[in-house]
Design brief:
The protein has about 350 residues and is an alpha/beta fold. It is built from 14 helices and 11 strands.
Length: about 350
């Protein structure tokens, strides 16, 4: 059975070097006494970052392919991992985006049947970001744009980012919205445990996509496709409740200015991946609420174990035909095939 992994990550040596040199945030810092590395998103939130994780992110060769082979993953669509380029000043971010995309392109040329790519962009320079997306798709053959869920004080729904949304729709490529530490300061008081992957990451992406829906982006760009990881970042559980203000506003003037219910945009414009969430009740909720036709394989490698992800999916109580949809058939409907 063919398998296309829509969420797998990488770093470049330059990206790591810039984060070690960055005097602001984000940055890498090693503790003087313990030598333990932290990825600091801001002064309150530092993610433990062991050598094996950094090495796996930097490994874009045979060792990565061997791990893919061991669990039957045919292709990984790679994205530049968190913290992303969105938090850097526009000049630094734009230069890093181009060099990271060039580096990833060389990997896709080396392993054309195994590695695909998402563009990295610096969205706070929107026009140049839109141009770089065009280059990445039309010249480098990338399959979309991977962005992170906030840009400091702004989100993807803000008007200045419309040129990028418009370009993604025109090019017919998806936007993968990946988590980062929430912009909401109250989410940072307990470090990475609250603000990071255990909780805050998912809440931040859910906020980002809901803002995008309420902004009217999908009415403005009806062909726009977004991918969310981690079984939809809790939104399948809330799928009926998010329609409440649209269906029962009590005051018509309070109804969101949308052509559809919010849940319809999630069902029509959004795909979700299986990345980073092996919990069967959560999977079954997403499977029933969003539907298997909108689900894609994602492993979140190297933050999650590839074999564990595939083994967990193989054990889910769904048909082999539905597993084929998740593994590769839905990707083919999006125009991404082996």
């Amino acid at each position: 059975m063919k398998r296309i992994d829509f969420e797998a990550h990488f770093y470049t040596e330059e990206y790591v070097r810039v984060m070690y040199q960055n005097e602001g945030y984000p940055n890498f810092r090693d503790d003087e006494k313990t030598k333990a590395r932290r990825l600091w998103y801001n002064k309150d939130v530092g993610q433990p970052f062991a050598d094996f994780l950094l090495n796996d992110l930097l490994n874009l060769g045979e060792e990565r392919l061997n791990r893919m082979d061991a669990c039957g993953v045919d292709v990984q669509v790679l994205s530049l991992s968190a913290p992303g380029l969105e938090q850097f000043d526009p000049g630094t971010g734009t230069a890093l985006a181009k060099s990271a995309n060039n580096a990833l392109f060389e990997v896709t040329r080396r392993y054309p049947e195994r590695i695909m790519g998402y563009a990295a962009l610096a969205p706070r320079n929107p026009e140049q970001a839109a141009d770089e997306l065009t280059r990445a798709v039309e010249e480098l053959g990338f399959k979309g744009w991977n962005t992170h869920s906030n840009y400091g004080e702004t989100y993807l729904d803000h008007k200045e980012y419309r040129p990028i949304l418009q370009k993604a729709e025109k090019l017919g490529v998806p936007i993968y919205i990946h988590p980062t530490v929430p912009a909401i300061t109250q989410m940072r008081g307990y470090g990475f445990a609250l603000a990071g992957a255990p909780f805050g990451f998912g809440m931040e992406v859910a906020l980002c996509i809901m803002r995008l829906i309420y902004s009217g982006a999908f009415d403005r760009y009806p062909g726009l496709t977004v991918i969310l990881g981690h079984l939809g970042e809790a939104l399948p559980f809330l799928l009926e409740r998010i329609d409440w203000a649209y269906v029962r506003p009590f005051d018509p003037d309070a109804r969101p200015k949308l052509s559809k219910k919010p849940s319809e945009y999630l069902r029509n414009n959004v795909y979700i991946t299986t990345s980073g969430n092996q919990y069967q009740p959560a999977f079954m909720c997403a499977y029933e609420a969003i539907g298997v036709d909108r689900m894609l394989l994602g492993t979140d490698y190297p933050y999650e174990d590839l074999q564990e992800c595939i083994r967990s999916l193989e054990q889910k109580p769904i048909s082999s035909q539905d597993k084929e949809k998740i593994y590769y058939q839905n990707a083919e409907r999006m125009g991404i095939s082996l």
